[in-house]
Design brief:
The structure holds two protein chains of two kinds. Helices cover 57% and strands 0% of the residues of chain A. By secondary structure, chain A is an all-alpha fold. Chain A has one domain. The longest helix of chain A has 17 residues. Chain B has a single domain, classed as 2-Layer Sandwich (Alpha-D-Glucose-1,6-Bisphosphate, Chain A, domain 4), CATH 3.30.530.20. Chain B contains three helices and seven strands; from the N terminus they run E-H-E-E-H-E-E-E-E-H. The chains are: A mainly alpha, B alpha+beta. Chains A and B meet through helix 1, helix 2 and helix 3 of A and helix 1, strand 2, strand 3 and strand 4 of B. Chain B: This is 1381_t:CDS:1.
Chain lengths: 77, 178
């Protein structure tokens, strides 16, 4: 399992990644696209966002999203 | 601006490749990728496409001139957006550097799609562009050449590393076959 940018987020990341990988192979690829692992993601994500803020990467991300918003990927197709 | 292109055929089904792509790192061929984090993720309810935004943290040696220009840091960050269309069996990832992007912009697009003539294979295509900003235009040729070279090296290692991951996961039966 890959590491997280926040050393203190590794355990949460591992739990979330394990849940996601299982969902991806057993549900998503078989046509069931209903999301799972949401609670684990929320906990892991809060930790990561904190780490990003501490490392001052949050501003870089805000700038990048201005040019290329996350939601616009499909629209650009 | 300079460009890099590569293509490859993986002898695994698209389902196996796409599932393994989430587990590509860590692998011993790519020690420069030190962390990967999911920032945002959702399934588009209309299209069924899974979209993911990730932060990639890398650490690698760079020439002294570049290191000076880039403020002495060897840790760099990239933002990646991926789209997985399970119906058409296409995985597309685009990424762009977040660090020092006022000096140099490295954009990459990779696509993994099912081989239309053989579903047991997956076609891989990688394209990258490297462009230096105005402020360092006197070094543009040197810097762009360096990144094209580095990109090519990392692309080869990345492909080898991914082949190892694909093989390992197949052995463990950890991803579905097709």
């Amino acid at each position: 399992m890959s590491q997280s940018i926040g050393a203190n987020c590794n355990e949460l990341k591992k739990e979330y990644d394990t849940c996601f990988n299982k969902w991806y192979s057993e549900k998503f690829l078989k046509g069931d696209v209903r999301p799972e692992c949401e609670e684990l993601f929320q906990k892991y994500r809060d930790c990561v966002l904190n780490a990003i803020k501490q490392k001052k990467i949050d501003k870089l991300l805000v700038e990048a999203r201005k040019e290329d918003p996350f939601s616009s990927v499909t629209e650009k197709k | 601006m300079k460009f890099f292109e590569a293509s490859h055929t993986f002898f695994y089904s698209w389902s196996h490749v796409s599932a393994a792509s989430w587990r590509k790192y860590p692998n011993d061929k790519c020690p420069h990728v030190i962390a990967i984090d999911v920032l945002d993720r959702h399934v588009d309810p209309e299209t069924g496409i899974l979209r993911t935004e990730r932060l990639i943290t890398c650490q690698q040696n760079i020439p002294k001139l570049l290191s000076k220009l880039f403020g002495g840091s060897t840790v760099t960050y990239a933002r990646e957006i991926s789209e997985i269309d399970p119906k058409n069996k296409v995985l597309k990832m685009t990424s762009c550097n977040l660090s020092v992007n006022h000096l140099v912009n490295v954009s990459e697009t990779v696509v993994y799609k099912e081989d239309p003539s053989d579903p047991s294979k997956t076609l891989f295509k990688q394209e990258a562009s490297i462009k230096c900003g105005e402020s360092i235009s006197q070094f543009a040729s040197f810097i762009e050449d360096f990144f094209v070279q580095r990109f090519g090296d990392n692309a080869t290692k990345g492909r080898q590393g991914f082949e190892n991951v694909l093989d390992r996961l197949k052995g463990q039966g950890e991803t579905i076959k097709s």
